[in-house]
Amino acid sequence: MRLQDRLRPARSPLTGLLVRRLLLLPVLVAGVTLVMFALAQSTPFDPVLATLGERALTMDGPTLEAMRDRAADSGAVQQWASWWGNALQGDLGASSSQRSPVVTVIAQRLPWTLGLMSAALVLAVLGGLVVGGVAGTRPGSWADRMVGGGLLALQAAPPFWLGLVAVWVFAVWLGWLPTGGATSPGSGTVQPLDVLHHAVLPVLVLALSQLPWFGLVVRDATRDALAGVPVRAAWARGIPTSRLLRQHAVRPALLPLVTVLGVRVPELITGAVLVETVFSWPGVASATVDSALRLDFPLLAALTVLTTVLVVLGNLAADIAYRVVDPRVGRHDG
What is the Cα–Cα distance from 174 to 172, expressed in whole angstroms? Predict the structure, then answer.
């Protein structure tokens, strides 16, 4: 090894991964927004009415026509550059559907969505570890068949259908939980217990929609690990069952679980859109549906950027967790 290589400070693979992903994030966001502006320009909708919303009703015809001509003269790249110029100065425009600045809408709604997704993801991962571990350590048993069939049935059910069934059973039939919203009608302040009461059904439905992916992966990984030669040798040496399962079954199942965790982040966001719409949850996911239906382009553009950032950061967190669980992964990435 050369002397200059020995004197060069060593950079950990984790640091290199963070630097590469964070440098790639602005490029990816810029590309996504450019495609979004190109698609918006090719749609048959009136861009002036989509931007102004109800404010267009107070403007005269010649002014609207002049604005349409100016919008037609500017290409998608010019509009994209103008939007980014304003966005970098903190001006994301005004939302015509929410009747507020886009920054205010996101600041008020984002905590509700992050809370819903975080709670659902934790429940789905823990539930997947439990049911997948129980089924994987008892291959061919009645528990394995019941868990496998139940998880496959849940995997085939769309989140909005699960939400409607949950509302009918627990809110309409049994009357145990509210049908939707985040607080009780007429409540002037946000009470934590009231929010938790309203969050039970949305969190459970979103967690159930993600549970099969984690449970099936853990079940298959545990089953494969128990059928391997190291586990058979450990059985022959008389190692206690609890220690054998913990070291040779549960730990190998964590690697595919983390891999699925990173892949499921975009699906978790999609599921949040459906669940928030069914339960009228006041998050950014339901605002995305409203902005698309009402042609609220300023809000839709900002939410597209936010979703892209969340997906990239979610995959980055999964990659970091993958390297923490197995330090051999990415050792030669530099």
Answer: 6
User: Do residues 108 and 182 make contact, with C-beta atoms less than 8 angstroms apart?
Assistant: no
Q: Give the model's pLDDT for residue 54.
A: 63
Q: What is the pLDDT of residue 334?
A: 46
What's the number of CA atoms in the CB half-sphere (13 Å) around residue 12? 8
β-pairing, 100-101 vs 94-95, is antiparallel
Asked if residue 333 has pLDDT above 60, the reply is no
Distances (CA, A) of 154 to 6, 158, 216, 254, 266: 55, 8, 11, 22, 18
Residue in 259, 251, 254 with CA at minimum distance from that of residue 231: 251
Question: Which of residues 219 and 251 earns the better pLDDT score?
Answer: 219
- How far, CA to CA in Å, does 96 sit from each of 83, 105, 290? 16, 11, 10
d(CA 160, CA 139): 32
E runs forming strands in 30-145: 94-95, 100-101
| pLDDT one-digit tens code per residue, 168-181 | 999 899 889 888 88
CA torsion, ordered 205, 209, 215, 220, to nearest 10 deg: 170
How many helices and strands in the chain, by DSSP H and E? 14, 2
